[in-house]
Specification:
12 helices, alpha+beta, eleven-stranded mixed sheet, TIM Barrel, globular, six-stranded antiparallel sheet
Length: about 575
């Protein structure tokens, strides 16, 4: 090899070595940059740490947790964030009201007494105020929120475990470091000894939280981190996740069975109704100026009705109507004690008649009472759940008038109640000054989408109310003079023979117009074809089911259609 060739080879070798050194340097820099965040200490050491269901939420707290005289206090704002979004300060009674699952508790500020589901209980601590912040005696509310609470002094940590979640413990095989992240390139958060028992963190599907061969655990000190999966032995499920079984499997198919409050319940002995699984007789109404009293119209005929329903396997969710007593309703909604009187009366009648649920039918309310009506539903739901009764609440379409539409917070009702019943009729009702359909398909569909969209209601909570009636719009000299309701089963008997029926594809209804005795009559017809279109929406949007207003206004053939479309025998 020539000198020139040797010199060139030497230069190439130097360049290659430099390239290798640069590559190694860049690799080290990359590794350091990647690994360094795993070593940053993010622990909060200057305050009490709060770990809820194996998640450290301390950095998300709005106020510090306080421990005084052995009582753990958590601020109302944080209770709202983590346990009860509807925790409420009742200024009139100077008390905090909190609800969870099947529990309702109220604590007057400064008193060591709690009212729990109507019973007074002495507690350690009370609600305390510091500046504008109210703190609840959280450790005294563990049975309300159904949790286990443990304070670990060595790490200044409070652990809270929900009793309705899966809980798993296991032993550590060999002594090891607990890593902040599922990688060896991570800081240590704790050390676990061989044979030490730890809590195995569960994910949302109630399975162990395993990442790339690492298992997330919580140590006895309340520290959260990861150990190798093969270092976990003797796993034991202390409790399984609690599953709530629905009273109705499949679609709800409910029929309202209306009768006037001064008359008797209908006699349905010896009959059955195909395609339904729930009946809602109009047994109960508010007493005007009755301060939470309920007019009970069951009587002997109602007892026979209940027996008939049970013998046919129907669930019984009677309606409680406010009879549009707007002032009486307002008085009750705005007074905690009157709300409790009404709730206690509802619980009593459910127990007295062995009912399966209640249908709240409060209509015509002040829009400014919207939040207090929601409070009523929030406080009623746990009491009914405690005795295994279903709560359904009737509401109208969104975006209507103050007293008939804006008086409902559909989002809250949809979150709290078992079902929200959209009364999808009276698109053009009795008070309308212009004629129109009772329930056009496009209007029903648009409002379902509003429930799901702007109102934020889950599809599996929505029961679609379907009308078994329509209206005859009577006009004379171009002016509307009357709009009497007509039962669906009688529509064809009032339409003159030979009248041309025109199909409206948007409304999915037939429309007729005819002259009779100098009066122009207009009818948007409800029949099997229009009802079928509405029932199709239940499948399209996967709604909870349907409800029908009202029994005995329908042709018998409608029940075969309902049975087929909803899959209810």
């Amino acid at each position: 090899m020539s000198r020139r060739a040797k010199r060139e080879e030497k230069i190439k070798s130097k360049i290659l070595r430099k390239m290798i050194i640069v590559a190694i340097f860049l690799g080290v820099v990359f590794t350091v940059l990647k690994v360094t965040p795993n070593y940053i200490n993010t622990e909060i050491t200057d305050k009490i740490n709060l770990v809820i269901n194996s998640s450290n939420v301390t950095k998300d707290l709005k106020k510090d947790v306080i421990i005084e005289n052995g009582v753990i206090y958590i601020a109302k704002e944080d209770i709202s964030n983590f346990f009860d979004p509807y925790v409420y300060y009742d200024e009139k009674e100077n008390q905090i009201i909190t609800t969870y699952d099947s529990q309702v508790a109220s604590i007057e500020i400064g008193k060591n007494v709690m009212n729990n589901n109507g019973s007074e209980v002495k507690i350690s601590g009370t609600v305390i105020k510091e500046n504008d912040t109210k703190y609840l005696p959280f450790s005294s509310l563990k049975d309300i929120y159904n949790v286990e609470i443990n304070y670990i002094e060595s790490s200044n940590t409070i652990t809270v475990d929900s009793k309705d979640r899966k809980y798993v413990i296991a032993d550590i095989k060999d002594k090891s470091n607990v890593k902040a992240y599922p990688t060896v390139f991570s800081r240590n958060v704790d050390i676990v000894e061989a044979k030490e028992t730890v809590t195995v963190v569960q994910n949302d599907e109630s399975q162990n939280n395993v990442v790339n061969g690492w298992v997330e655990i919580r140590t006895d000190a309340g520290k959260l981190g990861y150990v190798k999966e093969n270092n976990i032995v003797n796993s034991l499920t202390v409790r399984e996740k609690m599953e709530t079984k629905k009273q109705i499997e499949g679609k709800v198919s409910m029929v309202w069975d209306y009768y006037y409050e001064k008359s008797s319940a209908p006699d349905r002995t010896g009959t059955s109704i195909k395609g339904i699984n729930v009946v809602s007789p109009t047994f109960f109404t508010l007493v005007d100026e009755g301060k939470g009293k309920i007019q009970d119209n069951v009587r002997e005929e109602g007892l026979k009705y209940i027996q008939w329903a049970k013998s046919n396997g129907y669930k019984i969710w009677p309606s409680i109507s406010n009879s549009s007593y707007i002032q009486t309703t307002s008085e009750i909604m705005n007074d905690y004690n009157l709300r409790q009187d009404l709730i206690n009366n509802i619980v009593s009648i459910v127990l007295k008649y062995d009912l399966d649920g209640i249908n709240i039918d409060f209509e015509y309310m002040h829009d400014e009472d919207k939040d207090m009506f929601s409070r009523f539903i929030i406080e009623l739901k746990p009491r009914l759940k405690e005795i295994g009764a279903v709560l359904s609440v009737d509401v109208t379409a969104p975006d209507g008038s103050e007293e008939w539409s804006l008086c409902y917070d559909r989002y809250v009702i949809g979150k709290v109640a078992d079902y929200i019943v959209f009364m999808a009729y009276d698109q053009y009702g009795e008070s309308s000054t212009i004629p129109g359909t009772t329930a056009g398909y496009n209007w029903v569909k648009a409002n379902i989408e509003k429930f799901l969209g702007q109102e934020g209601v889950s599809a599996d909570k929505i029961i679609l109310g379907v009308p078994f009636f329509t209206r005859v719009w009577e006009e004379q000299a171009g002016k509307l003079i009357d709009n009497p309701a007509v039962d669906m089963k009688n529509i064809n008997t009032i339409i003159p023979d030979g009248t041309n029926k025109i199909w409206d594809e948007d409304l999915k209804q037939y429309y007729v117009e005819y002259q009779k005795d100098g009066i122009n009559n207009k009818i948007w017809i409800e029949d099997e074809k229009s009802i079928e279109a509405k029932l199709y929406l239940i499948q399209e949007y996967n709604l909870a089911g349907a409800a029908y207003w009202e029994k005995d206004r329908e042709p018998d053939s409608i029940w075969n259609l309902i049975s087929e479309k909803l899959g209810v025998e």
